[in-house]
Hints:
Helix 1 (17-23) packs across helix 6 and helix 11 (231-250) packs across helix 12. Helix content is 45%, strand content 17%. It has two domains: 5-85 and 111-231 and 484-493, Rossmann fold (3-Layer(aba) Sandwich), CATH 3.40.50.1100; 92-109 and 233-467, Rossmann fold (3-Layer(aba) Sandwich). With 495 residues, it is of the alpha/beta class. The longest helix has 20 residues, at 231-250.
Amino acid sequence: MNLLYKSTRNADKTVTASEAILKGLADDGGLFVPVNIPKLDVSLDELKDMTYQETAYSVMKQFLTDFTKEELENCIAKAYDSKFDTEEIAPLVKVDNTYYLELFHGATIAFKDMALSILPHLLTTSAKKNNVKNEIVILTATSGDTGKAALAGFADVEGTRIIVFYPKNGVSKVQELQMVTQKGANTSVVAIHGNFDCAQSGVKAIFENKELAKEMDVAGFQFSSANSINIGRLVPQIVYYVYAYAKLLQNEEIAEGEEINVVVPTGNFGNILAAYFAKQMGIPIAKLICASNENKVLFDFFQTGVYDKNREFILTNSPSMDILISSNLERLIYMIAGQDAEKNSELMQALKSQGVYELTEDMKANLGDFAAGYATEAEVKETIADIYKATGYVIDTHTAVAAKVCKDYQKESKDAKKTVIASTASPYKFARSVMTSIDGKYDALEEFDLIDSLEVVSNVAIPNAVEEIRNAKILHTLECDADKMEETVKEILGV
Ligand SMILES: *Cc1c(COP(=O)(O)O)cnc(C)c1O
């Protein structure tokens, strides 16, 4: 039986997994969700001895049911290969009785690689299955990490083009250099004058523009998305939560069936939603703990049931979480409303027009799986320094948000379950913030001297992704105003 997908804003129409991946966003502006979340059909005991690739197959085949075994295994093999600097793909590191699930061993040293190394293969396979003749144009808004991971994934993939929009002045130096030095004839990178939310809204508006879609079709193009709204990103992210649980079992850190907690540094709500899906599939996860930085719209939401984006947008040292409209939350809203597309549409409409909505009491009651916390900028710095001084382990600013929230949660709740922290970026990606947290003296250093110092301090070799950009040529210099994104896309494509 094929698992079908529906839009969070329309109860009637269903599409296959490959159609949902191709489209990215539903025509009505909603997000695709499976009509039900499938259970794992392998036991925890079987999972325990699987490789990352085997785990990926066991999880993904439950969701992408219109892919053949061969197609899916092929996508997995191409994605999780030597682009990752460790065979484990996502190592689980125990530090001070907490487990850090290191999701940054891929090509661009952030967790976005976990999904974006496979998305291009899922997408081109989906295009073949659906007889798509147009060239697929991937449009991506990035708060820093998605952009590079998508560029790396799609560069020179036949039948695709990729255009990435990032907020000028809103990303770290390494993040920016990684993007503007990207090679590949089918890649474009545009700095927009605005923040991430502007970039994301601009991309969404392009997707929702039906006239433009017709024009593109005539010119032989169709849009798709590499943002975490694409179900082809969400599904691969479920894998590493299943894998982490299996590793804990294999290492005899937990007994079979023992519940664990998961803490996720959150921005667009994609990563933590994947953990929620892993739980629904049958992995014994008790609490999903949502960690925010000073842009704590999600913390407030879980406290009060009110989502209110009307607030100051704060630029923090964990820029990949500087987000006030968490797109993937819509999928959770739809689910806690009992798959009520009408109710969800109403709330999303309120978000669009007033910037705020409030859950019903029934919906609030369905949020029991979640806890939430946030960390201030000062707390992030302190956490990086404290963990380094106590253990020698160096974490990045995003992971530090989660580590701080984890500590607060354990202290307040007295919940002593084993806890996995999603470690979402290599400290090398945010070298300045990390090093100055450890010691203010490092602030005087140039970017690459900082990186060399980080190698000494952390005792972890400089990743390839960083060595690569040390002397790389800048290839992309396009900029545009946030309200000129559509024109820019047309110019790039020559339409
Ligand atoms: C994207 C990102 C996040 C936020 O993940 P979401 O899925 O958007 O919630 C956290 N940390 C890093 C390093 C990221 O790149």
